[in-house]
Amino acid sequence: MGIYRIAYYSTPHPTLTSDDIEAILKVARSRNADLKLSGVLLHVFGQFIQLLEGPVASIETVMNSIVRDTRHSDIHIFLKQSGSTRSFERWAMWSDYLGGDLTEAEARERDILQQSALKALAELDRQAAIRDVAAPAEAVPLKYH
Ligand SMILES: Cc1cc2nc3c(=O)[nH]c(=O)nc-3n(C[C@H](O)[C@H](O)[C@H](O)COP(=O)(O)O)c2cc1C
Fold first, then answer.
1. Which residue windows are coiled coil (predicted)?
2. Which residue's alpha carbon is at the smallest distance from atom 5 of ligand 1?
């Protein structure tokens, strides 16, 4: 059966504690196992980066919950793919937060995911900088009193 992959980064709510993240992972692992989803959740550079892989209907179900979850905001999807193999078959939701031994191939996929997210973040910053430079007068109205 074909699988689908989706990845996003988001900004954790500033009051989120380590207990909150553990609670997210507990629910994620149990629900993902039921829905035959696998993936990783990274918490790096003040961002969440998550990859989900599995049947498209399951991804839609879980993403519907995730985008409405107020424990994070500014969700940017930077990867959507279909394929036939999973990268994190053994993990209902691996997390850098809780750890767990990744195979070399899994660790490589995690690094690629992190790099892709950072590239997407940098591109967003670059576009914001271009907009700021293009419209300085509007961004900073000059006032002489
Ligand atoms: C960063 C982040 C990642 C999450 N990842 C998952 C996940 O992989 N699977 C999952 O079932 N819930 C995940 N959740 C929790 C869901 O948003 C939601 O609370 C949970 O699935 C219960 O769904 P419901 O609120 O629609 O009842 C995540 C939440 C956050 C903030």
1. none
2. 28
pLDDT 10s digits, 78-136: 999 999 999 999 999 999 989 999 999 999 999 999 999 999 998 888 888 888 777 76
CB of 58 sitting under 6 A from ligand 1: no
Instruction: With respect to residue 58, please indicate whether it lies within any of the assigned structural domains.
Output: yes
**What is the span of the domain harbouring residue 95?**
3-135
pLDDT digits (tens, 9 = 90+) for 24-36: 999 999 999 999 9
Tell me, what amino acid is at 75? I
Cβ distance 48 to 1 under 8 Å?
no
Count of domains observed in the chain? 1
Is residue 64 included in any domain, yes or no?
Answer: yes
Give a yes or no: residue 140 inside a domain: no
Q: CA-CA distance, 38 to 20, in Å (whole number)?
A: 21
Q: Is 93 in the pocket of ligand 1 (CB under 6 A)?
A: yes
- Does residue 141 form part of some domain? no
CATH number of the domain encompassing residue 89: 3.30.70.100
User: Separation of 53 CA from ligand 1 center, angstroms?
Assistant: 14
- Among 125, 126, 132, 127, residue whose Cα is nearest residue 47: 125
What is the model's pTM?
A: 0.90
